[in-house]
Amino acid sequence: MRDRVNQLLLGLVAVLVALLVALGITAIVLEVTHHSAWNTYKQMYTFGTNASNIAGAINAATTYYLSAVAVAIGFRMNLFNIGVDGQYQIAALLAAAFGGAVALPSGLHQVAIILVAMLVGSAWAGIVGLLKVTRGVSEVISSIMLNFIATAVIAYLFVPGKLGHLTSESLATTPIKSSGQVGGISLIPHSTVKVYGLIFLAVAVGVGFQFLISRTRFGFDLRATGRSASAAQASGVNVKRMVLVAMLLSGAVAGLVNMPVLLGEAHNYSLSTPSGIGFTGIAIALLGRNNPVGIAFAALLWGFLDT
Amino acid sequence: METPAAPDAAPAVVLRGITKRYPGVVANSDINISVQRGHVHAIVGENGAGKSTLMKTLYGMHKPDEGEIEIDGVPVTFSSPADAIKAGIGMVHQHFMLADNLTVLENIVLGAEPRRGLRLDKKTARAKIMQISDAYGLDLEPDVLVEELGVGDRQRVEICKVLFRGAKILILDEPTAVLVPQEVDELFGNLRDLKAEGLTVLFISHKLDEVLAVSDEITVIRRGTTVGSADPKTTSARALAELMVGSQLPVPELRESTVTDVEQLKIEGLSLHGSDGRAVLDDINLTIHRGEIVGIGGVEGNGQAELVEAILGLRPIAGGKITLAGVDITTWHTRPRREAGIGYIPEDRHRQGLLLDAPLWENRILGHQTERPNVRGPFLDIPAAKKDTRRIVEEYDVRTPGIDVTAGSLSGGNQQKLIVGREMSGSPAVLIASHPTRGVDVGAQAAIWDHLRNARAAGLAVLLISADLDELIGMSDTLHVILRGRFVAQVDPRTVTPVELGAAMTGARS
Fold first, then answer.
1. How far apart are CA B481 and CA B394, in angstroms?
2. Against a cut of 0.90, is the pTM above it?
3. Quick check: B335 and A237 CB within 8 A?
4. Pairing of strands B225-230, B217-222
5. From the CA of A12, how many Å to the nearest CA of chain B?
6. Pick the CATH number of B250-341+429-510 from 3.40.50.300, 3.40.50.2300, 1.10.1510.10, 3.20.20.140
7. CB spacing of A234 vs B358 below 8 angstroms
């Protein structure tokens, strides 16, 4: 127990030191280029402690968190899923189009949209898994290439007449009706920006991931495969199926990445739907050491710095 | 047991009352050793007896909790290896610490570079290395890349490295573990040259015949303390081993037969092809009864590993039938086979037997992920798994500070005991034991034999594969000889001699 506390403290200290070093180096750069480092940091502080900005940072972090967990699922079994970016974008488009096209009672509507997103993300990631187990293709290569293919597929589908509509200022999918939206919550006092309601989904994904990895047989098999595929195989794990399942899971979580924004704020897929979050997720997963709690802190830090 | 110091000179190294405690265990207690200058002094003991801890103390990698160290009669305290190096101590680690992409010369000077201004003075370095190489017969070529060298050459580079830093006392930690017999002979030649030049060598090993061949004096360590010293000219390997283990040396033997007529594992007409389509196993027929140990003798690479993997379902077979306790399991995947009670002690424990980065209790679960006490339904039962791990550690004498340390931090023998304990748990139906005592010391070897005998008496069917012919003959009820993927002979383990078995294995006798 004491060892574990020490280990945790050591991990925290490492992150803090990294942060301090980063602050120090930027301070030097600022001073060298004749800017006041003190003033800059003071402004960052005032900005960062503003209620609305905190809410904004939390919102950004929610998205980052989901992306990083998707990456971490792969990392835990030595799979480098670089394709989270393509997976979430194609899932975002199709889920948005689906949500805008159907009319379902509230409750069911949101769940249906989220399920579609997870299925699409899963399917896209599943291609990577299938290629790996049947043809031995490295997941790094196939997932990067599928990112480009995803972009091309989106460009093909997201045009006026297919899934897109020209609005006054942009190209967008049919907006999701209010029955399919998830309202924000006023988590931060005095903030004009509400926090995404789906932050709870992100928390649930984190808790579920932790539980799955550390408390279940499946999670044990997954970790064992990541640590030594040959030992896992001798212990009875079907390593190929494990690769496929891990990719499907990773893809399903990747599909969730844009859901807080889609259901809570934008209500449609448009040209302003954010891209590149899949890559941010890789950095955050590494910073958080693939641990759900660590990733949460890393995502908050990233969200804060980004806002 | 302190050996009396020679009257004319102070001993090169004196360790007096050295005690080192780790949380939960005493690794060394009250160690007393005196090493004469110009001697090869062997320190022998079982895996985990505390040899490496002691050498780390001498090399300044940690401080002893009690006791004194004297070098050439002068008391010293080391707070880091740098201090030890300054005092003329050099250590050649069991696992080499060389940079593959640098040349021999660069590796040797690394960290102790002779400089001219800011540049590496290669000329001086080369001259010094060649001088060392010639003086001790190390036969080094300074400009070859280390990645092109074999294991024996690398070891000589390591030795040269410590000599380059001015070492007068060399610690060699299990230097022969990675060498083939011919390389061992070369190493011993080098050691004699070092000795002739007045250097002192501390030789750590548990291979007794080697120790007897090369050393001038032997100190035996058991359970962390010095239990005696011996003169290699007058002692025998057997006497040494008994001193190491602390009791009569066990021999592999089976007493009364416990073989029943219940067929537990039956293999009929098994054949298997390699990736090139060639037959690796050809028409193998094998029956193991309850209470029977069936041994397979053969030169390594004649299909033993493939046979094991076929039984476990790790490798697709080309034909044949495998029946476990009357049930045809030929098409089953590995997991159901293991659930049906096939225990597995793998030949390569690092590759197939353990998760080296995972704690012991997670390794207890490995291979038994679907069985109690490790799981309840789809969930891990962590408290129960930990409790059972403690039981295994206790019953199988796994020497470890706790069950939360990683498997990789245990010595090889203790890793093996953990695996044996795990595979014996939960009453297996068949045990595949592939080289079960490879790389473990005599004490652990005897314990593993005991466990096999007890399990056999309780009705376990065992497939034993071993390169140790005494073990194979002594522990088998039935003994097959495999050659190029076929069973070529069945010999009677009660009458066959190792020489006859060896001849059959190479196909000398038809």
1. 37
2. no
3. yes
4. antiparallel
5. 21
6. 3.40.50.300
7. no
